[in-house]
Structure prediction request, 334 residues.
Amino acid sequence: MTHRSGRQRVVVPLFDGIQPLDVVGPHEVLRIATYVAGGRGYDVELVGVRPGPVRSETGLDLVARSGLPTGPIDTLLVPGGGGARRQGPSGSRGNETELVNWIRHVAPQTRRLVSVCTGAFLLAAAGLLRGEPATTHWRWAERLSEEHPEVDVLPDPIYVRSGRIWSSAGVTAGMDLALALVEEDLGPDVAQSVARELVLPVRRAGGQSQYASPVWAPPAPRPSVRAAQDIVHAEPAADLRVPVLAARVGMSERHFAREFTRLVGTPPGVYVERVRVEAARGLLESGGLTVTAVASRAGFGSAETMRRAFLRRLGVAPDHYRRRFAGRPGIAGS
Prediction:
């Protein structure tokens, strides 16, 4: 399904409320790949329900050079943004519905279907993710799962491939996915050259969880269990074993463990580890402490215990996490 130029035809549909970086990031990866490959590579077409400027959710206009095309497409790359998230299980009114219908219509003639960030909502609304694993921005993964229970939503991967369907996490993860497409199409040497040009890793270590804000279960309705949660958050470095917590809130060990799991949704030990990982993240981001000191203050006891917890929960080691995030502000969702 190559274009007249001999390059692969990549079609990117634009819509009101789009996240511009979902378009610009992959576009730049594919553009540089085409240059590095000596003209082989990609023709990227920005299209829309109607040609002309499209207002993004950040206020930056993008321009659809043509209307929605017909005919074979090599790669359909669907961006995200508020306009994509407005697609409910039954779609919505206006241009988005026309866009979803078009995506559904051209999908059989498309070799590869790709969503970036919340573009997964559009593929799901078109019925193309039924029974498939897919990812999206961590902030919107739960909503995607609720609105489209037929999709196997994986909230942590940077990108997911299932046959001809690819999906990525939020915003800049679209560049990670685009690099993976380049590697498949043009080889690892071209992908590596593009990554060097853009000052990006070819493959990012860890998953989305290292970027996500902490998401806690709401306080338990039972006062004794809620008191245990408060103890854990207030004293992450304390002795928080189940027998100790149960005694502090006046419950038997077995009953406490059962009620905590039922009301909070996770066993006490798992909850404690989550809180300690978040405490350690804050200390690592602020800088100034050794990994060993952070492990002690966060309640892990040893740097090795903290390292295992970080790998289990975030997919990266503490020293790697600190190099990436020390002194940086929090990351906003798209």
